[in-house]
Specification:
405 residues; mainly beta; 2 domains; 16-stranded antiparallel barrel; 7% helix; globular
């Protein structure tokens, strides 16, 4: 019901006195602010998805583009293990529409200024638009791009350590990131970062420094610092693949486990982390593999593991997605069961163990590329629990819809 009202409102706005502009605007003499123009040419989807583009004109020396951006991701999960059933029905009411979880509900704006400066502003909205519409600010930053070899950004963004986190939530192919990857998840942090690619025939780099406090708004800089560095090489030209790239990543957290207050999420419990990954693409097939290691502190054990994601596109609309991962630690409580679904099973105890394995297979149907897709998949996961009785051996089925503009 909420979604239909939002979509209807957008269409009414376009049909009213403020007509929105397409990718090829037709300026009106004397116009200020929004330009008056036509919808983009092409399919009905092309026309609908051109509505959020408020302004686009590369000839304007100050403002080249201004557009609304948004995401609506909904999903349903049903799982079972020896202790009973679990799923989206067990998620908090303020995160669901009935038995359907509202995975992401975001609205914001992006733009381009002075030819080389871009910005992105995203807000999370409460699913029921109450007790207030606005929930928090996950991302807000500016990027200056000189060329492919150098761009620099500042603001608040999601920490992109490991290959999974380098995918935006819009483009990520499975429903959820791996348990191993999530153990290193740093959240949305305030900082500055620079990157470049295509250097000396294929080298790429990334350097970033962030405050490690995970807060809903801007950092208060009361915690420690996270430093992230990456170096990679695109070796496609030395192979017969369409794409071949290897990457090394190193992260240092000066104050692991820091929490601003009880309402905030903790910083990851690892002082030093390493990722070594490789991606190859050939025609419809793509394979990404990754090794991850983290040095635990404050009673948290070291953890390491391997993950892989292999995908095959049958057509431009239908794609098979498969993943697997294995993780282990030297302590019997060093690996954590994913909290979103598996940890909701009634008999998992403290949801910790010393060894974890998971495999996922699913199909994605792309109605309009990554901007509108249907997803369904089945996941098997096993955790060898430790002293807290965290054993898990079960299946989870998921289906959902992803929409973005």
């Amino acid at each position: 019901m909420i979604t239909s009202r939002i979509v209807t409102g957008i269409f009414l706005l376009n049909m009213g006195s403020l007509s929105l502009i397409s990718a090829e605007p037709v300026p009106t003499p004397g116009a200020t602010g929004l330009l008056v123009g036509k919808l983009a040419e092409g399919s009905a989807y092309d026309q609908i998805w051109s509505i959020p583009t408020l302004y686009k004109n590369e000839g304007n020396p100050v403002l080249q583009e201004l557009a609304l951006v948004g995401q609506l991701q909904t999903q349903y999960a049903y799982g079972s293990d020896d202790s009973g059933n679990f799923g989206t029905k067990d998620r908090p009411d303020d995160l669901t529409w009935g038995d359907t979880e509202v995975r992401r509900f975001r609205l914001g704006m992006k733009g381009k200024l002075f030819g080389k400066l871009t910005f992105l502003y995203l807000t999370d909205l409460n699913p029921d638009l109450s007790p207030r519409i606005y929930k928090r600010t996950p991302e807000m930053y500016f990027t200056y791009t000189e060329n492919d070899a150098f761009n620099i950004s500042a603001g608040k963004t999601e920490l992109k350590f490991n290959r999974e986190q380098e995918y935006s939530s819009r483009d990520f192919l499975p429903f959820e990131r791996s348990a191993l990857g999530n153990m290193f998840y740093g959240g949305e942090l305030t900082g500055v970062w620079a990157s470049g690619k295509g250097i000396a025939g294929g080298w790429l780099y990334y350097l970033g420094a962030y405050s490690n406090d995970r807060v809903d708004e801007w950092s208060h800089f009361n915690g420690g610092t996270i430093l992230l560095g990456k170096i990679g090489y695109d070796y496609t030209k030395h192979t017969g693949f369409d794409l071949a790239e290897v990457k090394f990543q190193y992260l240092h957290n000066s104050e692991p486990g820091f929490r601003e207050d009880s309402a905030c999420m903790k910083s990851p419990s690892y002082s030093d982390c390493i990722s070594i990954s490789n991606q190859i693409t050939e025609g419809p097939f793509d394979l990404t593999t990754e090794f991850l290691w983290g040095a635990g502190v404050n009673g948290v054990a070291d953890v390491c593991g391997l993950s892989a994601m292999a995908n095959y596109s049958f057509t431009k609309n239908l794609q098979l997605i498969t993943t697997w991962e294995v993780a282990g630690s030297s302590d019997d409580n060093g690996v954590f069961l994913p909290t979103r679904y598996e940890a909701l099973a009634p008999g998992v105890g403290d949801a910790k163990g010393d060894a974890y394995f998971a495999g996922y297979a699913g199909l994605n149907y792309y109605i309009y590329g990554q901007k509108l897709k249907l997803m369904s998949g089945l996941k098997y996961s096993y955790l060898d629990g430790g002293s807290g009785g965290g054993d898990f051996n079960g299946w989870t089925w998921l289906c959902g819809v992803r929409m973005a503009f």
